[in-house]
Amino acid sequence: MTAANKSKPKYTNRALPSKGVDWLNNPVFNKGTAFTDAERDALGLRGLLPPHVQSMDEQVRRVMANFRAKSSDLERYIQLVALQDRNETLFYRVVMDHLEEMMPIIYTPTVGKACQEFGHIFRRSRGMYVSLNDRGNVQKVLENWPTRDVKVIVVTDGERILGLGDLGASGMGIPIGKLSLYTACAGIHPTQCLPITIDVGTNNENFLKDPLYTGLRQKRLTGADYDAMIEEFIVAARKTFPGVLIQFEDFGNSNAFRLLERYRHEVCTFNDDIQGTGSVALAGVLSALRITGGKMSDHRVLMLGAGEAGMGIADNIVAVLREEGLTLAEARKRIWFVDSKGLIVKSREGLVAHKLHYAHEHAPCSDLLSAVKSIKPTMLVGVSGQARAFTEEIVKLMGANNPRPVIFALSNPTSKAECTAEEAYKWTDGRAVFASGSPFAPVTLNGKTHVPGQGNNAYIFPGVGLGVVASGAKRVTDSMFVTAAKSLATLLREEELAEGRIYPSLKRIHEVSLKIAVAVAEEAYATKLTDQTRPADLTAFIKSQMFQPEYNHYA
Ligand code: NAD
Q1: Whole-angstrom Cα distance, residue 460 to residue 470?
Q2: Which residue among 242, 374, 484, 510 is least crowded, i.e. fewest CB within 10 A of its CB?
Q3: Which of 31, 113, 151, 178 is catalytic?
Q4: What residues form DSSP beta bridges with 195?
């Protein structure tokens, strides 16, 4: 009997390694220099590690010293990915203990740069790739994954990575990063997470010419062939990993809306770019109402950008307006869109389906400035990917029309933000209620410090995912995202609001995710979306399932 059998490790869905060096090469089990003397003897590790046994705290200190000494964020990203591939427990300890510092590296904005450079910084494969060459065999491919116990898949086809366009198979950095956040923010067990890229080709000419690009060298599959590939993947994923939650991520605009509509009523799935963004922005809007006063129906919202994020946000605001008693038509009329062709109005021809709902009777306006002059919004939301689109004149106009103008510049990465935090505060004499997609530092103006909110989807999707997984919900509903937004908004403390914050500090992310998970699970039980029985103490039940990055003892 090996020593490993003597002491039962906490939850793991992987077979224990058999001999010494395999323990070091397996990131799920590796403890590196923290293997104790007893473990080194029992597992055949004696001599394979330097003699001093380190505590996890000492290891964390070493990682952080190296991290802070790196010369660029991309180098920091590479360091963290290497750690994740070497010792997953230590990776999560580091990330969870320093989330505010780590989030911009493992996710936006640095992950965008990492995807652009993916083939050039590639070290070791993580997750799974399903390519169009696997058509007819997708299930066999998925069965190569070492366990069937997968609870969450994040899948992309790489067509629209953040605001960076078609990055093909290099988009893999996004599912990997998102799933790291599922674990870091909500404690979904890392071995139950599976990042997947569906490589249907790319139209990125630079990548097609780049010898280091990791994907197929061909143009994107489209039309019925594309749909058949996605269908085969969905069927195979559900068969291989029964009950799995499938999150669509960074699909191109037309596919994203279509696929969500196609699968949401039959499969446990959601699209974070649409529904997650809608939810986190709604939470920001609800918090902003606590500052501006009044109800949602007292406001007029003007959105710049009518894509996945814009539509998700609008639909969630409509849900709240309907709760305030407005009809669907009345609610939609409170929200206006400007896209690349100007104000979306009824008389415009050739509008795609998702824009039609928000096409109102109005004379055309060719640009944002004239739309702001005419609509006089109380809330201006940027999700256009157009850097500096909120000019000084526009922001000042918002300030002139409103005592507390609500201005969200949500486009990522930082370089694409519609305005900076400093500009929003400066041009409104500190009166703006501001949020952005990528983080901005606090701004001090006339002696008062304003803390800009970061409308980070990581406030929402990990908690929603945890609630769905813990309750065994079979579907993910729009209403769950509205519930999640309300839970997030109510968590904001008065002292945080006084600083101008509209989202709680990321330091509170575990509390946030747990609260959202409980609310989402409650909804799953109440609406009978699950066959499971509600545990008497739901919070304790969910908490007990949350992964803690602590080493197991194997001897
Ligand atoms: P998308 O490609 O689906 O939509 C972009 C929209 O912007 C399209 O409707 C396009 O027509 C419009 N647009 C392009 N040029 C324009 C112009 N000159 N003027 C006005 N509109 C223009 O992308 P998306 O998923 O909706 O994301 C948009 C942006 O929002 C991205 O930068 C993304 O990073 C950001 N985003 C932020 C968050 C967040 O903060 N939590 C979440 C999701 C997306």
Answers
A1: 16
A2: 242
A3: 178
A4: 154
Please tell me if the CB atom of residue 414 comes closer than 6 angstroms to any atom of ligand 1.
Answer: no
Kindly indicate the confidence band of residue 518, based on its pLDDT and cuts at 50, 70 and 90: very high
Distance CA 355, CA 349 (A): 11
Which are the contacts of 269, defined by CB distance < 8 A and separation ≥ 6? 245, 246, 247, 248, 260, 263, 476
Cβ contact 280:185 at 8 Å:
no
What is the model's pLDDT at position 1? 36
**Cα(377)–Cα(405) distance, integer angstroms:** 9
Torsion angle of C-alpha atoms 72, 78, 82, 83, degrees rounded to 10: 40
For position 6, what pLDDT does the model report?
47
Which domains occur in the chain, in start order?
3-102 (1.20.1370.30), 107-267 (3.40.50.10380), 273-555 (3.40.50.720)
Q: Identify the pLDDT of residue 8.
A: 57
Contact 114, 419 (CB under 8 A): no
pLDDT at 3: 45
**For ligand 1, atom 8: residue with the closest CA:** 307
Ligand 1 centre to CA of 459 (Å) is 19
Q: Residue 551 catalytic?
A: no
| This prediction's pTM | 0.93
**Closest CA relative to residue 244, chosen from 482, 476, 14:** 476
d(CA 458, CA 333): 30
**Is 178 a residue of the active site?**
yes
- Cβ of 383 below 6 Å from ligand 1: yes
Nearest-angstrom CA–CA distance, 371 and 302: 8
The residue contributing the CA closest to ligand 1 atom 12 is 305
Which residue, among 421, 486, 477, 479, has the nearest Cα to 454 in the 3D structure? 421
For residues 86-106, give the mean pLDDT: 96
**Which pLDDT band holds residue 439 (cuts at 50, 70, 90)?**
confident
CB–CB of 548/187 below 8 Å? yes
Tens-digit pLDDT profile for residues 266-282? 999 999 999 999 999 99
Give me the percent of the chain exceeding a pLDDT of 70.
98
Among 383, 418, 506, the mutation site with the greatest number of ligand 1 atoms within 8 A of its Cβ is 383
The answer to whether 372 and 403 are in contact (CB under 8 A) is no
Q: Which of 77, 92, 107, 182 is catalytic?
A: 107
